[in-house]
Amino acid sequence: MLDADFFRRWLTAATAAVDREAARLTELDSPIGDADHGSNLQRGFVAVSAVLEKESPATPGGVLTLAGRQLISTVGGASGPLYGTLLRRTGKALGDAPEVSEAELAAALRTGVDAVMTLGGAAPGDKTMIDALVPAVDALGTSFDAAATAAEQGALATTPMQARKGRASYLGERSIGHQDPGATSSALLIGALAEAARDE
Amino acid sequence: MKMLINVAETVVADALRGMAAAHPELVVDVENRVIARRDAPVEGKVAIVSGGGSGHEPLHGGFVGHGMLSAACPGEVFTSPVPDQMVRAAAAVDSGAGVLFVVKNYTGDVLNFDMAAELAEDEGIQVAKVLVNDDVAVTDSLYTAGRRGTGATLFVEKIAGAAAEEGQPLERVEAIARQVNANARSFGVALSACATPAKGSPTFDLPPGELELGVGIHGEPGRERRAMMTSGEIADFSVDAVLEDLQPTDPVLVLVNGMGATPLLELYGFNAEVQRVLSGRGVPVARTLVGNYVTSLDMAGASVTLCQVDEELLRLWDAPVSTAGLRWGM
């Protein structure tokens, strides 16, 4: 079973991963975006770590809901509402149980990913974070490591796609040949989940 | 690339502190990132709140004041502000007559303003929204995030601001804002890419001797790259791109807008070419504004915005305005 501490470790690992990869995310965001994805997420996750330390919610749902709200309040751009909604809606789906099973987390994360698709209007194949998150959620039934690998492959698979959502979509065919920064950061988030699970 | 900054992390806060020092007629909340009229809320007046990423100055903070915006929310550079800022701004300027959010059509701005509208309504503030999407360079709306909001934002904020200033109700101010957006189209070109403080180098690579046609205002490349053209050729291309989409029957307002690093000398020369093309196409010009108003950091280049106006919209355009970035008639 996964408790609030597991979810705190997930977000701590995510903060470290975003911090480590910030320059690369910004670099990926340069040719098809506006060169700020790394610094924006960095600002958000640093704030998430700070608020979790301060308020220390007792339940998995409480941790994710608070983290999501904090991302919405600090990141801005599209990634703030989208990542914020992902965590907040996943957290709400977990309710106030003190511990949740892996299957419950997988179901809740699917609710969160669905909410992101509704909010952003993106579907798989649009060259967005959805292209990493949907395969990750599908693989979560197998294992955390399988989910991390699926997210990573999903991010790589965005390279030949033409963007249909977000700022990269303005480039039309010129968006082809670049890996999507949002799918890349989503793979980092799922990778951090696998990392937290390995520490169990 | 050299920049006149301390560190990238504080560019927005530093600029806000400087703005506060230069403009005592504004209340600048540096910590919460809200710029508001000092006299707000004005009794019985609809408030207009806009915002967006920083890096487009004087948009939006430079348009706060009499006859234009009630408040603005600057985000990080090229990053939409967060809902907390917008709700705080709305609460600070709402007189009870309601608030109009002017939102440029970018995924981030739309999402954050939508969330803010819901939160503000929870606090009992009546909110209306108008989306600005005037950029004809984005052709295929079905497969993109839709047309971007660019130069027309200035027309929407000025004309809706004038309507609000004379006490028109929220439904009417909103309708006027929508009408201005529906009547306006823009097209922009870049002669160089811009450098964001966070990256410190140009966001895309534009070789000497080439230009980008159909650029946005966030350092994103355009739709097409060509060998460098003359001012006259760029005017032909840009005005035609706009007129393909807007066939004005009434006279137009013309905004010849600099992207940030193109000298006024060149902008005025470009305006002469724009007027030549308009005259050749039989489009009557009511008013023209030339300058750096909706910028993209240190990008070189320009955009052309045309907005068709009837007598009422023209009267509101001519109404007095007093802001840091736009001022006449008072």
From TrEMBL, chain A:
Pfam family name, one: Dak2
A GO BP annotation: glycerol catabolic process
Key words of the record: Kinase, Transferase
Residue span(s) of domain DhaL: 5-195
Gene Ontology molecular function, alphabetical: glycerone kinase activity
InterPro entries from the UniProt entry: DhaK_L_YcgS (IPR012737), DhaL_dom (IPR004007), DhaL_dom_sf (IPR036117), Dihydroxyacetone_Kinase (IPR050861)
SMART domains: Dak2 (SM01120)
Keyword Transferase listed: yes
Domain of life, per lineage: Bacteria
Gene Ontology cellular-component terms listed: cytosol
Name the UniProt record assigns to this protein: Dihydroxyacetone kinase subunit DhaL
Source organism of this protein record: Streptomyces sp. NBC_00119
TrEMBL record, chain B:
GO molecular function (one): phosphoenolpyruvate-glycerone phosphotransferase activity
The DhaK domain, residue ranges: 7-328
Record keywords: Glycerol metabolism, Kinase, Transferase
Reaction catalysis annotation: dihydroxyacetone + phosphoenolpyruvate = dihydroxyacetone phosphate + pyruvate
Pfam families on file: Dak1 (PF02733)
Enzyme Commission number: 2.7.1.121
InterPro entries for this protein: DhaK_1, DhaK_dom, Dihydroxyacetone_Kinase
Gene Ontology terms: cellular component: cytosol
Taxonomy, superkingdom: Bacteria
Biological process, per Gene Ontology: glycerol catabolic process
Protein name, per record: phosphoenolpyruvate--glycerone phosphotransferase
Source organism per UniProt: Streptomyces sp. NBC_00119
Gene: dhaK
